Amino acid sequence: MQYLQKTLRLTFAEGVQMLKEAGVEVDPLGDLNSESERKLGQLVAEKYGTELYILHKYPQAVRPFYTMPCHDNPSYSNSFDVFIRGEEIISGAQRIHVPEFLEKRAGECGIDVKTISTYIDSFRYGAPPHGGFGVGLERVVMLFCALNNIRKTSLFPRDPQRIAP
């Protein structure tokens, strides 16, 4: 695998610009589909010589309501994805920790605040700024082992034709 000593970090806007320069049209405030992610991985490898990179500051509109907006541009969020060979392996973000702001964001996203009141109430006793991330372990194994299908990394893979072991 090709990688740099210091992991490459690109903003979402920089990734969109690279795709546009390659003739791929994407919404600058939308999300990337799998095909665009793979193409960006190819472009990053060609331009920067790495297969591992971080794409950060995703548009706020494509992230969950509890994702903290960027302080300098609330159209974007304090969120990131980590990619290997154009495949997302980690997704994460800073979370909103202020209950009133959580209520406001939930309302903006069409979520009835009453349905998540216990979640919001948990922040009323104080919560420090914090974040989280999720790792797609099977995807990481697939990419690390250069396998051609994620089902090869799972003991009991699921798909539309197989829902039981």
Task: Jot down its keywords.
five-stranded mixed β-sheet, 29% helix, alpha+beta, 5 helices, BirA Bifunctional Protein, domain 2, 5 strands, 165 residues
How are the strands of the largest sheet arranged?
1-2-3-4-5
The gyration radius over C-alpha positions equals 18 Å
**Total strands:** 5
Assign the CATH architecture of the domain at 8-95 and 130-147. Answer: 2-Layer Sandwich
Report the order of strands and helices: EHHEEEHHEH
- Per DSSP, the total helix count is 5
Helix vs. strand class: alpha+beta
Quick structural summary:
With 165 residues, the protein is an alpha+beta fold. It has 5 helices and 5 strands; from the N terminus they run E-H-H-E-E-E-H-H-E-H.
Can you put this structure into words, describing what you see?
- It comes from Capsicum baccatum.
- Keywords: Aminoacyl-tRNA synthetase, ATP-binding, Cytoplasm, Ligase, Nucleotide-binding, Protein biosynthesis.
- It contains 5 helices and 5 strands.
- It has a domain at 8-95 and 130-147: Bira Bifunctional Protein, Domain 2 (BirA Bifunctional Protein, domain 2), CATH 3.30.930.10.
- With 165 residues, it is of the alpha+beta class.
- Strands 1-2-3-4-5 form a 5-stranded mixed sheet.
- It starts with 7 loop residues before the first strand and ends in a 21-residue tail after the last helix.
- The radius of gyration is 18 Å and the shape is globular.
Question: Helices, strands, pairings?
Answer:
Layout: E1 8-11, H1 12-21, H2 34-48, E2 52-56, E3 79-84, E4 87-95, H3 99-108, H4 117-121, E5 130-135, H5 137-144
Parallel strand pairs: 1-2
Antiparallel strand pairs: 2-3, 3-4, 4-5
